[in-house]
Amino acid sequence: MRKREEKKMTDRSTKPRELTKYQELIELRDKERARIASSSVCVKGKDLPLEVNPQGVLKWYMHPNIDSTAHKFIMFYTQEIPPASRSGKQRTQGGVVFVVVEGSGYTVIDGQRYDWKQNDVVQLPIKPDGVVFQHFNASEKAPALLIAAEPNLAATTGVDRACGFEQLEAAPEYK
């Protein structure tokens, strides 16, 4: 080996008591195991707050920043749409599934309308440039309730999820 290469190798060595990347990985594993051991496998909806945000009225059951759940591979939330209202308009990668628990209305996906009612499922397709969607409650008197589930891609692809994640319009309830 040349002296220059030998010097590079010694520069990469760790000093005593300095953690190696492998040791950091083991610590991360142990921390995750401890988090899982103390987590809940049953999330009680009655204990969760409603959140009004630009997308509307949501209740988060599973989220990348909620550490009390058994795993973080799925984002899971409910969305309530008040009578004659709508959600915010959003661009996302897709891959989201909405189950209509109560109510009737429609979702506009990339400019095309899809009507739904109780017990229907609305699926956002995965597209390279993402999809733009917005939900509308068709009832003047009753709220609509949707359950949403999607893979938690934030950890692997970043919050932009490879296509851009943008709030294009806020729900009317968000002030």
Helix content: 10-25%
Low-confidence stretches: none
The tally of strands reads: 11
Shape: elongated
Structural class estimated from helices and strands:
alpha+beta
Largest sheet: 6 strands, antiparallel
Compressed to H and E, one letter per element, the order equals: HHEEEEEEEEEEHE
How would you sum up this structure, described in words?
It is a single chain. The chain is α+β, with helices and mostly antiparallel strands. Helices cover 18% and strands 35% of the residues. The protein contains three helices and eleven strands, in the order H-H-E-E-E-E-E-E-E-E-E-E-H-E. It has helices spanning 3-12, 21-37, 154-157, and strands at residues 51-53, 56-62, 74-81, 89-92, 97-102, 104-109, 112-117, 121-123, 131-137, 144-151, 166-169. Strands 1-2-3-10-5-8 form a six-stranded antiparallel β-sheet, with no helix packed on it. Strand 6 (104-109) and strand 7 (112-117) form a beta hairpin. The radius of gyration is 22 Å and the shape is elongated. The N and C termini lie far apart (66 Å). 15% of the residues are buried.
